[in-house]
Amino acid sequence: MQNSIKIWVGETGGYKLLDSGNKQKLEEIGGVKIVRAEPRAWWDKSLPDSEWQGVKTGLEEVIDIGMGGIKAKIKYKGSSKHIGIFPEQFSQWRYIAERIKNHETQDASVKLNILNLFGYTGIASLVAAKASLCRVETSFGLAKTGSRVTHVDGSKQSVDWARENQKLSGMEDAPIRWIVDDVIKFIKKEKSRGVKYDAIIMDPPSYGKGPKGEVWKIEEQLPELLESCRQILSDQPLFVIFNMYSTELSSLSLSNLLSDMVKGLNGTIECGELAIKQENSERLLPLSIFALWCAN
Q1: How high is the pLDDT of residue 146?
Q2: Is residue 143 part of a domain?
Q3: Which of 150, 168, 171, 229 is most solvent-facing, going by the fewest CB within 10 Å?
Q4: Is residue 105's pLDDT more than 80?
Q5: Residue 45 belongs to some domain of the structure
Q6: Which H or E run contains 29?
Q7: Does the residue 76 lie in any domain?
Q8: Global pTM?
Q9: What CA–CA distance (Å, rounded) separates 76 from 51?
Q10: What is the average pLDDT value for the chain, to the nearest integer?
Q11: What is the CATH number for 270?
């Protein structure tokens, strides 16, 4: 199983990283500037202090992310860590869409079963569903495929936000199941029901709580998560994507863990960092590590 290291750079529509440094980042969302803390930005700022002045302490904007009309509601308050989207994941969303479209174009009769764990506000789920709704040419003419996406998050607020993004994107009829549940409990229930998935996307937090107060600590539950995911993979899966924030692990660590998880499957592994390119600069702001397995 080959292993390569790469950097995926985000290019999300409606979003710009204007500057970073001194453990902060200056962002522009829908033309509005905000400043958020960024512990990874240890270097000096590039822009003068005047460019960092007059920023908004709160905003609510809807942006088109630049992928097939998918829209995301951005909400920010001055004390917020999150805004409802991870712009650095754009290249990953594009990869998800391309893999699904290519697979279904080759065989329009195949209906993929796609699982997005810790799905947050649902952008990856919408991208996967949009890709599966492409029209492909078959021997009988044009056919509309319709693979199923299951989105799981322990936060009802996040799932409600995801459903709002679905509506904003005009995708109310897309085949997406929105589930509020503890991820491990959900996977175990799916296993007992004999449900299998052809692709899994997971973005576990370092710490969190489920809908019934279940405590999630990545250091304690990561092995169980990966083992459980392996048990619900189909016999011929398409890909597995594993992102992590706020962790002491490296991308090579994730690659090794993922390699153990997919042992016996024929494919390749890539790992690396998700980053955003700073406007008018060659500087990249690293924000997450990832590992990806894909079938040959």
Answers
A1: 61
A2: yes
A3: 168
A4: no
A5: no
A6: strand 24-29
A7: no
A8: 0.91
A9: 20
A10: 90
A11: 3.40.50.150
